[in-house]
Hints:
The protein is α/β, with parallel strands linked by helices. The chain has helices at residues 3-21, 29-41, 55-65, 81-85, 123-126, 128-135, 170-173, 187-197, 211-223, 228-239, 250-255, 262-278, 286-297, 305-310, 314-324, and strands at residues 44-48, 66-67, 70-74, 86-92, 99-105, 112-116, 137-140, 143-146, 152-157, 176-181, 209-210, 256-258, 302-303.
Amino acid sequence: xxxxxxxxxxxxxxxxxxxxxxxxxxxxxxxxxxxxxxxxxxxxxxxxxxxxxxxxxxxxxxxxxxxxxxxxxxxxxxxxxxxxxxxxxxxxxxxxxxxxxxxxxxxxxxxxxxxxxxxxxxxxxxxxxxxxxxxxxxxxxxxxxxxxxxxxxxxxxxxxxxxxxxxxxxxxxxxxxxxxxxxxxxxxxxxxxxxxxxxxxxxxxxxxxxxxxxxxxxxxxxxxxxxxxxxxxxxxxxxxxxxxxxxxxxxxxxxxxxxxxxxxxxxxxxxxxxxxxxxxxxxxxxxxxxxxxxxxxxxxxxxxxxxxxxxxxxxxxxxxxxxxxxxxx
Length: 329
């Protein structure tokens, strides 16, 4: 099949997925768009929002639409790394009585992982995901075990509760392509949510694409060319988040302790390519970069005490940067 045909097919698939997911999820169009961007770009997503916004339901519904092996891991303070990756057990042969070690796979061995409330488990257990998210394999007992492909982690996080939580370390945050912040629905959407969820009707969601299709679309996204001008804009945007970088805006120097690294630029461009591909376009524009900038950068910018005192968070820093770079585009 020609790449142009696959591109047109991806556009249709996106519309079908949106139609199916909206059978269950009311509104949240921008959030769903970002999740699909991460899916077709092959990147992990962190969903941040207060309880009751259907973060978990959104991922579970997506899993029903995609013909993928899905596992949900509920992160708790007593969860151990082996509860995620798996463990080796001693197995005795009933005839020879000889003993050997056998590896029992953990829930990480799936295509789509829902890491629910990922900040509720200690750093030791959070770190069990690091190798899997970056290398797509896990190491247990000195043996490397490959994970199935495609492999995607969708993690949820509650931003307002601090009791019994463990903030994700910077290295792990950087493994997420996009940090997606969910907000409350508007009044009409909330009314529709109540109407649709307090009765007996259950939405019949059908599968739209398979794992092989997803691999095909992810490969297509990587092949999309990007002009040097657009890449330069993305790299310049990322470099501007670093307070000690020459030419960084004054508000970055005053309010940021650490900015985004090179992986941010990679994910920024890749997400922009996926966004263009989903609309059936091979022309990746600066507007695509700007649309995915908040999701790709907000979790990679670490503000200082001055910012905390003035109520400025990383999302606001990205807004200021996009306003500053407006003239360039």
